[in-house]
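Technical appendix A lists one of the benchmark inputs used to test multi-chain prediction within the project. The record comprises two sequence entries:
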Amino acid sequence: MKSNNNWKRLSLKESLFLGFCAVFILIFRASFRLNLNIPGHAMLFTVFFLMLARACVPYRLSATWTGMIAGAMAMVLGMGKGGPLIVSKFLLPAIVIDIGAALMPQWHQRYLLSLVMAACAAATRFLSIYLVDVLIGMDRVVTLQHALIKSSSGILFGMAGSLFIPPVVKKLQAFGVVERHFPQTITETDNS
Amino acid sequence: MTNGHQHAGSPIKITSPGWKLSLCVGLSIGAFAARTPLMLGVTMGANLVTMIVFRPQGALLRGAAKVLFIQTMMVTALHCLRFGITAGIRPGLITSMQLFLAFFPSVIFISTTSPSQVIGAMELILPNRAAFVAGTCLVMIPMLLRELKTIYQVQLFRGARILPKDLLGPKNWPDVANCLLVPAVIHIMVRAQNIAMAAQAREYGKAVKRTLWPGE
């Protein structure tokens, strides 16, 4: 008998794939920071790999899990500003992506839905910057300006990253690799 | 190499990564609370002592100095715009120093901790499986980079328009998706399957608390 496995426990293979997505987020962030010093450009890779994680692995918290791993790695590796609060930079967009995917099941097949989801996810950068600045004790107006400057470019980059999702997922599905590695439905014998 | 964790006689050898991570996270949190010049001075002193004890490497310190400079320019400029030049400089400098001190302890941690100790530290902040996944994926970074480079070069030989100058034209972006991203994603799916199979062949997940390789 087949059933939807969106709430099943992640298998080790799926966990490792999500871990690799998290590592790719950090690799691209680190490598592009050296060459491309445009504020917010890191959102391109963050949003792309978080959305890819959610599109490929049939688990409702795939993106959140990837964001948690990426955040923990970034904290330990000393990437980004904000100390332990760096985790929120990955976790908040990931949660938005998981919520968006639950509300719009066909999101990865449509450019418009991907763009909307990416814009909402990247907009959380405002919250994470605002949170750090408020905790530091910065003036509210300066905090708003600082967060707006940094997050507006992040939204544009995040939306650009989401444009790669429909063609990549379509190609992966056409090759049958997603279904082969991470089946969308499981039989009762698989579950045992 | 002159990594901090490789200095002969360095106190790092007798310091557990868990203790060091807790200290650095504590210093980071301390920066958020340091809102007066006195508290900021105390936090800076604590960071300085930690730096002297652990001896981080020069390249990362130069990177941190660059972050401090950019951050200070931006935040102080915003404060000057809001309060005027004379009234804005002091809070601008204090805030940028706080932001820097929230980030700097992580630089000390990573530049004075060996990769195996970093993986050990992951166990403290993540659940068991997540720590295993994070550690495994971190160890695989050099190999992933090599494989990505191979895919990139093979696709260039096949005529894919994915050179940095090609990426300036949006008409070449589909090539990035088809020739670089799709093969890379398939590659990591296969890699994940192989690692999971190898781990499960050695009965990963059978014991409640997994064993860790103790060496460097």
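Helices of chain B lie at 17-33, 37-54, 58-83, 85-111, 115-125, 128-139, 141-157, 173-201. Chain B touches chain A through 67 residues (CB under 8 Å). Comparable benchmark entries are summarised in Table A2.
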